[in-house]
Amino acid sequence: MTKVVLPGSTIGVLGGGQLGRMMALAGAHMGYRFVTLDPTPDAPCGQVSAAQIVAAYDDRAAARELARSADVITYEFENVDSGVARMLEQESYVPQGSRLLHTTQHRLREKRAVEEAGVRVAPYRQVESEKDLLDAVELLGTPCVLKTATGGYDGKGQRVLHSEDEAEAAFAELSGPGVDLVLEKFIDFEKELSVIAARTPDGEAAAFPAAENVHVDNILHLSIVPARVPQEVQEKATEMALSVAESLGVAGLVAVEMFWAGGDELYVNELAPRPHNSGHYTIEACVTSQFEQHVRAICNLPLGPTTLLTPAVMVNVLGEHLEPLIRLIEKGGMRSRGGVTPKVHIYGKTESRPKRKMGHVTLVADDVDPALAWIEEAGIWEGQVAKTGPVR
pTM of the prediction? Predict the structure, then answer.
């Protein structure tokens, strides 16, 4: 039996963003205290924690201060310094460890780990030179996607190649000293899905219902649950996520993002070893939220049931949407109507700017169609719901 961290203990969080904030809010109900480390003063997680250590993520002295204040340490996003995580793993209690963090911080390592779990990924090739890229384009065909192996998120660090003629410019844009590149075959998918799996250090595992995700400008716009795919596809997606969690020895959560290309063709696109934007719907729509589940998992408590209680649609609030949303709230636009109940989450970030995630709204309804209609009628998202085709 591994260590159990009981309510009354303090959880240290590397990272002070909205995921840490919602984790702290969920954990507080269970009797846990939180302390966070983040370089931004008054960070979203810091606002709802007992204390915030204001320091860079690679500040080892600050990380040790966090360890002295906490009984268990977790991270709320995967771009924390893996060396610091490795040090903390040796000197304190970090059930997630640093191995999974190291794996998911690099696309090539991640893809190989997923393949070792017996799960399919999109065909890919490592790219170390312009010649490698040209050879890979010839092998995989176009369209294809050139990506940096590290650091990319929300569409950053990638270029779609529609012809071989675009390879030289793409390589020049993304390559550089110490930059690893990977070329992926473009999957002509019907839906983007994600499944969030939880696993305790003792090996108990559970998965949340698959979410159907819609991206606009490579940023998640909507998550729709239940996903509008056949039941057998939902079941296969769940099996794949649990296989990944087991093979990688996950402790906590892992979000497994996938492409569904029709039939039984499912490909894992990427992993996130933490709570995930596409799992926000679980706060209102599931018996256990992803944030409570993460706390349960890292503390080695029994996992909660992941049963879906109601259909729901989560829509992100970016910087350009925040003021229109506030005006809608002021006008009384958050009342339940037509069987749709909006739930507003604002993250407490001090600076609002375009494309920055500032909050989300979850629409709880008897069916997803009226929830999607509510989003259109709100007039905040400028018709983006209609742009539901593949966006990469």
Answer: 0.94
